[in-house]
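Form P-L/3: holo structure prediction, ligand V47.
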Amino acid sequence: MAVATDLKLIRDKVEAGERLSFEDGLYLYRPDVPLQEIGQLANLVRQRLHGNVAYYNINTHLNPTNVCVYRCTFCAFRSDLRDPKGYVMSDEQILERGREAVENGCTEMHIVGGLHHQKKYEWYVHLLELLHQAYPRLHLKAWTAVEINWFEFLARKTAREVLLDMIQAGLGSLPGGGAEIFHPQVRHRICEHKADASKWLDIHRTAHRLGLKTNCTMLYGHIEEPVHRIDHLLRLRRLQDETGGFQTFIPLAFHPANTGLAHLPRPSALLDLRTLAISRLMLDNIPHIKAYWVMLGVDIAQVALAYGADDLDGTVRHELIYHDAGATTPQMLSVEEICRLIREAGCEPVERDTLYRPVYRDPNDFRNWSVSTDAVACSSV
Ligand code: V47
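OUTPUT (holo model):
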């Protein structure tokens, strides 16, 4: 009986456009609350915000080095300094990636990597300059808040100063990585030494104040409990109330292979969909929820479009973080494939740039594109 009553209260709130509480969020994670009901509510919110549009972009990844001073237990990508697996890309290799991206119509390059023991701050700034000068139209979505925090240490500068240097070098926005789980009970156990919750949030606050848009993430399905997930979502919601600078939230499903947590099972499809739907319901002030197909698999990403998600991320090239951790998804999808997935889900595909502006392509030359400077109709919350 209590189930029906509580779910009814939540449904009433969602239908009235009212904000859900911490207790509501926790309640929605109870296994006896039917997933399809949560999905329906999330879909209601998703349709209110975006109609039946689903976004994708044409993008590529660049991980300039995998050598990292930190030893996050969930990470299969990192390498020790002297490990044969470790690499650092040369300027030529980086420029070649830029060329390949532009040749293939990419509007965005997602750049993140390890915190190399020996690389200086100037190398990270130089890398953006190099790409931006050669390919000024390629949006550089670069460096997680954890990396910005490392650069503060390397350069003896404040986050604001680091971000200003990076903007001058060509930075366009920040990706959402490094958030993991904010709650110290979990964070201390999975990534003990890196930027804590308040540092991560503070760097995004500073970025937003400088006019940068950023994304945010949550790594779920490892040692955390529902209470930690809801705490995480509410910390993001509070910052968004303050700044409005987050564009999209990406729940990231843990992939255990080759990590320090390899004994754990992969999160189930049910947890994936429940987490996407609860995120849509709790984050009433973040415009987009991304179902990152590389991590979910294309099948669940497609279903996610009916569980609150409105964005599949991009066509993607050169993804390493998930593939090193055992992801069996393809290395990339073609535009035709991604549009087919979206249409099969009953949605209308819209190519967007990193800032969610619709992209128009010359039908005779795919590489010739422009963006609408009009506000994207359905993305404001
Ligand atoms: O911060 C690392 C996660 C993140 C594993 O902003 C893992 O548009 C699961 O943040 N299993 C990096 N997750 C990826 C990321 C991201 C991806 C796509 C789009 C955007 C965006 C951001 O990946 C890390 C960490 O939370 N991660 N290892 C693993 N074994």
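COMMENT: The domain at 7-57+158-380 is CATH 3.20.20.70 (TIM Barrel).
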